[in-house]
Amino acid sequence: MMGGRPSDSAAPAGKKRIISRTCREKVALYALTLALILGKGNLPCAALAPTLGLTEEKCAFYMKQLGCKVEKVRPREGGEKVSTAVLTLPLAFPKLSRGGKARQR
């Protein structure tokens, strides 16, 4: 870390690092999981969405994939409703769709 930035030693000079979509999603899920742990199972979806480069809807989708229930809650101060993810036990993961019925000929 001679240059002051951690990425200076990781990437060759003059080259830019490219992060795949899968890695970006994995980092976002890890960050949201950590935020859930620190928030004791309760996290507003808009809290980290801009930092991670996500929309509030995409953040809510990821929270559902982590097993949270996403609810629209009105803040104590009033105003519009905010999506809040709540981790409840036992975990309830979303059901995967298996596709439609096969077409008969």
Give the overall form. extended
Q: How do the strands of the widest beta sheet line up side by side?
A: 1-3-2
Structural class: alpha+beta
Largest sheet: 3 strands, antiparallel
Q: Strand percentage, roughly?
A: 5-15%
List keywords for this structure.
single chain; 3 strands; Arc Repressor Mutant, subunit A; 105 residues; three-stranded antiparallel beta sheet; extended; alpha+beta
Q: Helices, strands, pairings?
A:
Layout lengths: L5 H5 L10 H18 L3 E3 L4 H4 L3 H10 L2 E6 L8 E6 L18
What does this structure look like?
With 105 residues, the chain is an alpha+beta fold. The chain has a domain of 70 residues: Arc Repressor Mutant, subunit A (Orthogonal Bundle). It is 35% helix and 14% strand. It contains 4 helices and 3 strands, in the order ααβααββ. It has a 3-stranded antiparallel β-sheet with strand order 1-3-2. A hairpin with an 8-residue loop joins strand 2 and strand 3. The longest helix is centred in the first third of the chain and has 18 residues. The protein is extended, with a radius of gyration of 19 Å. The relative contact order is 0.13.
Summarize this, please?
By secondary structure, this protein is of the alpha+beta class.
